[in-house]
Amino acid sequence: MASEYLKWKYRDVQPEKPVELTKKQRRQNWWHYHKWHVLIGAAVVLIGLDWAWNVLTRVTPDYQIAYVGSVPLAEGDGAGWETRLAALGTDRNGDGKVVVRLNQYLTSHEDAMVAAAANVKLLADLDGRESCFFLLEDPEKFQADYEVLEEDRVPVEGGLYLARRVFREDRTAEHMDECGALWARLLKEAA
User: Fold this and answer.
1) Which of 80, 105, 153, 183 could be 163's S-S partner, Cβ–Cβ 3.0 to 4.6 Å?
2) Cβ neighbours of residue 146 under 8 Å, at least 6 residues apart?
């Protein structure tokens, strides 16, 4: 009964003819349903390209020297130390050039948060065994605080001291032989 009734009720109903969309309407319809897929895919591709660019263009230093003092080194002084060590050093990572990075850690600053951040960065440097050499204003205080220096310290210009990092048996740095050879060349140059 119900089916006869429905046949009678919808006897005049004709199916709608499919609407023919223009090219512009088809593109708008596609974009309406796929815009989030496209945007998320583009974001993933951009993040991947940024990551690849950072990995491929990263310059890994052969040596790192840490300056620990109360005032920042002048830009020319920092570049001078980098150049000086690069001239005496060897290419440790095999990229064809000797790169030296000077990291500055300011121990006293008018803003306590900046001084604390510098201390955390210095501790990360010490824990990661990144710097083999240190330029210090007060090597005795630094040694008392961190206990990481060898006994042989060399006074250099500007009232600073150049010191070498000591590594414990269980925690040594890579390329220790090259760091020792560079230290010997630095001592010979200082004499």
Assistant:
1) 153
2) 126
